[in-house]
From TrEMBL:
Pfam families from the UniProt entry: MFS_1 (PF07690)
SUPFAM superfamilies: MFS general substrate transporter
GO molecular function, one term: xenobiotic transmembrane transporter activity
UniProt keyword terms in alphabetical order: Cell inner membrane, Cell membrane, Membrane, Transmembrane, Transmembrane helix, Transport
Family indicated by similarity: Belongs to the major facilitator superfamily. Bcr/CmlA family.
Membrane-topology annotation of the record: Multi-pass membrane protein
Residue intervals passing through the bilayer: 9-28, 48-67, 79-96, 102-125, 137-159, 165-186, 221-245, 251-270, 282-303, 309-330, 342-367, 373-391
A biological process from GO: xenobiotic detoxification by transmembrane export across the plasma membrane
Cellular component terms per the entry's GO annotation: plasma membrane
PANTHER family: CHLORAMPHENICOL EFFLUX PUMP RV0191 (PTHR43124:SF3), PURINE EFFLUX PUMP PBUE (PTHR43124)
Name recorded for this polypeptide: Bcr/CflA family efflux transporter
Primary location recorded for the protein, binned into one broad class: membrane
Length: 404
C-alpha cells in the first residue's frame, strides 16, 4: 500500500497522529456520565464501579512506562497495531461480560493498550519532522489533547441520555478501528541503532536512586495528592450529581467540561502569570487556590446539606485553576536538583500521581451518601496531604499554605 509523504501532506499526518493520541484519553472522559447506569446494569455498588475509573488511570500510567521501550524495539506501527488490537478485544469484553469484575479488568486493559497512541503519536511526529515543524506538530497534538477531555464528557452525556452506556464503548471501538486503518497510510521510519548499555542492574539502580530521593518524593506525592483531590470528581462526581442529586447525564457532561476547562486555562496562562514570581511564591499562590476551591466546595455542602451543585462545581473550578499551576510546579521542582535518571524520574512522576489518585479517590466508598459533602471532604484531605509534604521540604516550608 502506498504511504503518505509526511513532508508533502503534513495536515493529513497531523489528523492521523492526533487520532492516535486521543483514543486513550477519550476512553476515560466519554465514559464518566454513564457510571451510574453501569452500576445499575451490573447490579453492583458505586464503590466497586468507580474502580473502573481509578484502575483505568493506573493503567494509563503503566502504559506510559512500557510503551517507549516497546516502540523502540518493535517499531512504532507494530506497537500501535498490537495496542489497538488488544484494546478492541478489551472493549469487546466490556460489552459482552455480565460481571462487574471482568468489566473493571477489561477497562484496565483498555487503558494499558489504548493509551499507547498518546505516546507513540509524539514519537512519530519526531520521526517525521525536525526543528520548527516538529515543534509545530507537537504543539497541535498537545492542543487537541486539551480539547478532547472537554468534548468527550459532553458527547458521553448525550450518548448515555439518548442511547445507553454501551454506545460510548461502540464509539471507543470505532475510534480504534479508524486509527488502525489510518495507520496503514503512514510510513515506518527506521530507528537508528544505538548501543544498549543499560543493564537490568543499572535500571534497578536508577529506580532505587529516584525512589529514595526524599525531595523528589515529597514534591511528587504533593502533586499526586493534589491531583487526587480533583480526581475525586472524575471517579465519584457522576454518582453524586446524577445518581443522588438527579441532574441529567448531558448536563453532567457540561459540568465536567467546565472543570477541565478551568485546569486548561490555568495551565495555559499560568507561566505568564507566574513569570515575575519565584517558584516559592508561585507554589504558594497555586496552593492557596487549591485550599480556597476545596473550602468553597465543602462550605457550600455544609450550608445546603450536600445539595448545592452550583457551589460544589464553582469550588472545583477554583481548585482546577490552582491545580493547573500547582502540578507543573511540583513536577519541575521534584527533578530540578537531579543530575541523573531524569527519564526514570519523569516516567515515575506520572505513575505515582495516578496511583495516589486511585487510592485516595477510593475513600469515597467508605463515606456515607451525603451529596457533595463526601466528595468535598476527600478533596480537603488530599489538599492537607499535599500541604504536609511540602511543609517537610525546608526550602518551601514558608511557601506552602497550611491546608489542614
Amino acid at each position: 500500500m502506498r504511504h503518505l509523504n509526511p513532508d508533502k501532506y503534513p495536515a493529513f499526518v497531523l489528523i492521523i497522529l492526533t487520532l492516535f493520541a486521543v483514543v486513550g484519553p477519550v476512553s476515560i472522559d466519554i465514559f464518566t456520565p454513564s457510571l451510574p447506569a453501569i452500576t445499575e446494569y451490573f447490579g453492583t455498588t458505586s464503590a466497586i464501579a468507580q474502580w473502573s475509573v481509578g484502575l483505568f488511570m493506573l493503567g494509563f500510567s503503566l502504559s506510559m512506562l512500557i510503551v517507549g521501550p516497546l516502540a523502540d524495539r518493535l517499531g512504532r506501527k507494530k506497537t500501535l497495531i498490537m495496542g489497538y488490537s488488544l484494546y478492541l478485544v478489551a472493549t469487546g469484553i466490556t460489552l459482552l461480560t455480565d460481571s462487574i469484575h471482568v468489566f473493571i479488568a477489561a477497562r484496565f486493559a483498555q487503558a494499558v493498550f489504548g493509551c499507547f497512541g498518546t505516546a507513540v503519536a509524539r514519537m512519530m511526529a519526531r520521526d517525521y519532522y525536525r526543528d520548527q515543524m516538529e515543534v509545530k506538530m507537537l504543539a497541535y497534538i498537545g492542543g487537541c489533547l486539551t480539547i478532547a477531555p472537554m468534548a468527550a464528557p459532553i458527547a458521553g452525556g448525550y450518548l448515555q441520555e439518548y442511547a445507553g452506556w454501551q454506545y460510548s464503548f461502540y464509539a471507543m471501538a470505532a475510534m480504534a478501528v479508524i486509527a488502525m486503518i489510518a495507520l496503514m497510510l503512514l510510513p515506518e521510519k527506521k530507528q537508528e541503532k544505538t548501543a544498549d548499555t543499560a543493564t537490568h542492574t543499572s535500571v534497578i539502580a536508577g529506580y532505587k536512586a529516584v525512589l529514595t530521593d526524599s525531595r523528589y518524593l515529597r514534591f511528587t506525592i504533593a502533586a499526586g495528592a493534589a491531583f487526587a483531590g480533583a480526581f475525586v470528581f472524575v471517579a465519584g462526581g457522576s454518582f453524586v450529581l446524577i445518581g443522588q442529586l438527579g441532574i441529567s447525564p448531558a448536563i453532567y457532561g457540561y459540568l465536567f467540561a467546565v472543570a477541565i476547562a478551568s485546569y486548561l486555562l490555568s495551565a495555559s496562562i499560568g507561566p505568564k502569570l507566574t513569570a515575575s514570581m519565584s517558584r516559592n511564591q508561585s507554589t504558594l499562590m497555586a496552593g492557596t487556590l487549591l485550599v480556597v476551591g476545596a473550602m468553597v466546595s465543602l462550605g457550600s455542602g455544609l450550608l445546603t446539606d450536600g445539595q448545592s451543585i452550583t457551589g460544589y462545581v464553582a469550588g472545583i473550578a477554583i481548585y482546577e485553576l490552582g491545580l493547573g499551576l500547582f502540578m507543573p510546579l511540583c513536577q519541575a521542582r521534584a527533578t530540578e536538583h537531579m543530575k541523573e535518571n531524569m527519564g526514570t524520574a519523569a516516567g515515575l512522576i506520572f505513575f505515582i500521581e495516578m496511583l495516589l489518585a486511585t487510592l485516595i479517590s477510593a475513600l469515597i466508598s467508605f463515606l456515607p451518601e451525603a451529596g457533595t459533602l463526601s466528595l468535598s471532604a476527600i478533596t480537603l484531605v488530599a489538599v492537607a496531604i499535599s500541604g504536609f509534604c511540602l511543609m517537610k521540604t525546608n526550602d518551601v516550608a514558608e511557601a506552602t499554605p497550611q491546608a489542614a
